[in-house]
C-alpha cells in the first residue's frame, strides 16, 4: 500500500510517501516540479500531484522492492533509471 501526502512549496510540491509491502514499511520524500506536472500529470492540484506520485510508486514497485527506492529524490529522476517511465506517464 502506498500513501502519499503532498504539500505545496512555491511552484513545487514535496510529497511524503509511505510504502507498506510484504511486512516492510519504508518512507520517502519526493519533490515534484511544475515541469513534472506539465509533462506527466492531468492537473496541478494536490490530488493530481498525489495521484501522480502514487502511480509512480506503483510503477517503481513493479520493478524493485521498496527498500531499493531512494529515500529522497525528485520525481524526474525515475526516468534516468527506467527510461520507459516517460512512455508510461506521457499525457
Question: What does the model show?
Answer:
The protein has 91 residues and is an alpha+beta fold. It has one domain (2-89). Helix content is 35%, strand content 33%. It is built from four helices and four strands. It has helices at 34-40, 46-61, 78-81, 85-89, and strands at residues 2-9, 12-21, 24-32, 72-74. Strands 1-2-3-4 form a four-stranded mixed beta sheet. A hairpin with a 2-residue loop joins strand 2 and strand 3.
Q: Which tags fit this structure?
A:
91 residues; alpha+beta; globular
User: Outline, from the CA principal axes?
Assistant: globular
* Fraction of residues in β-strands: 25-35%
What is the number of strand segments? Answer: 4
Order of strands side by side in the largest beta sheet? 1-2-3-4
- What distance separates the N and C termini? 25 Å
> What is the H/E order?
EEEHHEHH
Class by SSE composition: alpha+beta
Arithmetic mean of pLDDT: 94
**Percent range for helical residues?**
25-40%
Number of helices: 4
Task: List unreliable stretches of 5+ residues.
Answer: none
- Tell me the radius of gyration: 12 Å
Largest β-sheet summary = 4 strands, mixed
Number of domains: 1
